[in-house]
């Protein structure tokens, strides 16, 4: 489950969930109980293709990744190497 999925399931701001994962914030007892309930009865999975590209571009987490790629050459090279293992979604043979 993504941070966004969990935030939606708990009706919270995704920034709060990100703060938990970064160790900057801590979940309350009520949040923990709600997460346990979601774990026992998870919401239906969403299609990974359902999110429009412009929504991805507007995601703050995606923007952070882009900033890091622009600044850190080693990271960019690693990502380019990793990306070479995946089909191009614009390639007609793999669409």
Topology:
Layout: H1 3-10, H2 14-22, H3 29-40, H4 53-57, H5 60-71, H6 73-83
Quaternary status: single chain
Q: Major sheet: size, sense and barrel closure?
A: none
Mean pLDDT, to the nearest integer, reads 86
Radius of gyration: 17 Å
- The number of domains: 2
Number of helices: 6
Measured by DSSP, the beta-strand proportion falls in under 5%
What is the H-and-E element order?
HHHHHH
The best one-word shape is extended
> What percentage of residues falls in helices of 4 or more residues?
55-70%
Can you walk through the features of this model?
- The longest helix is centred in the middle third of the chain and has 12 residues, at 29-40.
- The relative contact order is 0.08.
- The chain has helices at residues 3-10, 14-22, 29-40, 53-57, 60-71, 73-83.
- It folds into 2 domains: 3-40, no CATH class; 53-83, no CATH class.
- The model has no long low-confidence stretch (mean pLDDT 86).
- It is built from 6 helices and no strands.
- With 95 residues, it is mainly α.
